[in-house]
């Protein structure tokens, strides 16, 4: 999986076990991941046999979900995909717009790798008639490019000196596809919340003012392949300035969250958040009160890799000092089921419990 701010890699067992507990008690089988991001959670839930629907507003996240949640490994087995990836690896490097912008004017990749990324991306268009196959190939390319980039894990800036991994040659590999079908959607959570249905909704909304589009604009461009106008030292897409989410606004985030929750059709809601976001734990509990019983679970967690490496300016120079390297992650379980509620009361991570006003 790609390096991703807010990644749930270390928290996956906790998140999955929380959702598994609900399934075990209520026979819940379907889950909607409304802010799917890197698709890591949706992929893990699909691996555990859940019927997963993933949604995100960014195109790169949609493509990752198409491959890691929707695609069926029985339809796209390793042997079939490996042959195509081998053919793509034989394509001659072709430096052009992508190489100039992201390897010379900016320094996200070594130019030799940038030229290979560019040529492979052009060749992938030959498979556009099969959207899921194209998504699988694009996912392989993103995963490969992520292993040879020169960033701290986000694309707000690149390193002043090349990261050691940037010198490694790009290598395409079969993505971790799973057997079975899921669903992937490209849409705004505010518009999709009322259109999707499942036993459980998993919500992991943006926490602060930094947009995922701004943090991963190179992946958005690689997937869209639209040669956008760019700005600044980091060569961000111009639409980073235009495609704003209310979840990245302290003034608008609360109303947006309430609007999403008011539309959800599900028996249970699991919300992932931490103590560095726009909302306090008590505010989230208040927003969830209409769902009945609300339980707050918490665990200490190391902050994303960029925070541990350091703070860098747009020129890739290390600046400032890290205030802390650990935060507290929360899982809020909202349910009308007394059985589920009682089960979570026994969890050692329980910090707060809200009783329903009306059942």
Helices and strands in order, then pairings?
Layout: H1 12-26, E1 30-33, H2 40-47, E2 51-56, H3 59-70, H4 78-89, H5 97-105, H6 111-124, H7 131-146, E3 183-186, H8 189-192, E4 200-203, H9 212-215, H10 217-224, E5 230-231, E6 236-237, H11 253-263, E7 268-274, H12 281-288, E8 293-302, H13 305-309, E9 311-312, E10 318-319, E11 326-335, H14 338-345, E12 350-354
Parallel strand pairs: 1-2, 1-4, 2-3, 4-7
Antiparallel strand pairs: 5-6, 7-11, 8-11, 8-12, 9-10
Helix pairs in contact: 3-7, 3-10, 5-6, 6-7
Structural notes for this entry:
β5 and β6 form a beta hairpin. The two termini are 41 Å apart. The protein has one domain: Rossmann fold, CATH 3.40.50.150. By secondary structure, the protein is α/β, with parallel strands linked by helices. The protein has an eight-stranded mixed β-sheet, sandwiched between helices.
Which labels suit this protein?
single chain, 359 residues, Rossmann fold, eight-stranded mixed β-sheet, 12 strands
In short:
By secondary structure, the protein is of the alpha/beta class. It has helices spanning 12-26, 40-47, 59-70, 78-89, 97-105, 111-124, 131-146, 189-192, 212-215, 217-224, 253-263, 281-288, 305-309, 338-345, and strands at residues 30-33, 51-56, 183-186, 200-203, 230-231, 236-237, 268-274, 293-302, 311-312, 318-319, 326-335, 350-354.
**How many structural domains can be distinguished in the coordinates?**
1
Would you identify the regions where 5 or more consecutive residues have pLDDT less than 50?
none
The number of helices is 14
Question: What is Rg?
Answer: 21 Å
Along the chain, the helix and strand elements come as HEHEHHHHHEHEHHEEHEHEHEEEHE
- Which architecture per CATH? 3-Layer(aba) Sandwich
What is the approximate shape? globular
Can you list the strand order of the major beta sheet?
3-2-1-4-7-11-8-12
What's the CATH topology label? Answer: Rossmann fold
N- and C-termini, Cα separation: 41 Å
Task: Characterize the biggest β-sheet.
Answer: 8 strands, mixed
């Amino acid at each position: 999986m790609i390096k991703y701010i807010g990644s749930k890699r270390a928290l996956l067992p906790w998140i999955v076990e929380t959702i598994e507990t609900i399934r075990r008690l209520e026979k819940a089988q379907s889950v909607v991941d409304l802010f799917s991001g890197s698709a890591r959670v949706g992929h893990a839930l699909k691996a555990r046999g859940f019927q997963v629907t993933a949604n995100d507003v960014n195109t790169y996240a949609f493509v990752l979900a198409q491959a890691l949640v929707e695609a069926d490994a029985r339809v796209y087995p390793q042997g079939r995909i490996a042959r195509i990836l081998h053919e793509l690896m034989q394509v001659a490097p072709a430096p052009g717009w992508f190489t100039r912008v992201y390897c010379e004017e900016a320094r996200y990749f070594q130019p030799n790798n940038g030229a290979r990324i560019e040529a492979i991306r052009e060749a992938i268009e030959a498979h556009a008639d099969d959207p899921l196959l194209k998504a699988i190939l694009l996912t392989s390319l993103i995963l490969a490019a992520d292993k040879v980039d020169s960033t701290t894990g986000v694309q707000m800036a690149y390193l002043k000196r090349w990261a050691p991994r940037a010198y490694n040659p790009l290598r395409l590999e079969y993505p971790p596809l799973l057997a079975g079908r899921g669903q992937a959607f490209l849409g705004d959570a505010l518009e999709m919340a009322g259109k999707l249905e499942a036993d459980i909704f998993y919500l992991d909304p943006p926490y602060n003012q930094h947009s995922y589009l701004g943090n991963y604009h190179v992946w958005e461009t690689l997937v869209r392949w639209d040669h956008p106008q760019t700005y600044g030292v980091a060569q961000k897409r111009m639409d980073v300035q235009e495609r704003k989410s209310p979840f990245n606004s302290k003034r608008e985030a609360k109303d947006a969250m309430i609007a999403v929750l008011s539309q959800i059709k599900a028996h249970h809601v699991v919300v992932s958040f931490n103590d560095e976001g726009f909302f306090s734990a008590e505010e989230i509990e208040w927003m969830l009160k209409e769902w009945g019983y609300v339980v707050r679970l918490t665990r200490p967690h190391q902050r994303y890799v960029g925070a541990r490496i350091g703070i860098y300016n747009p020129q890739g120079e290390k600046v400032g000092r890290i205030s802390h390297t650990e935060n507290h992650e929360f899982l809020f379980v909202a349910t009308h089921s007394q059985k589920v509620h009682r089960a979570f009361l026994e969890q050692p991570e329980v910090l707060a419990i809200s009783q329903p006003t009306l059942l």
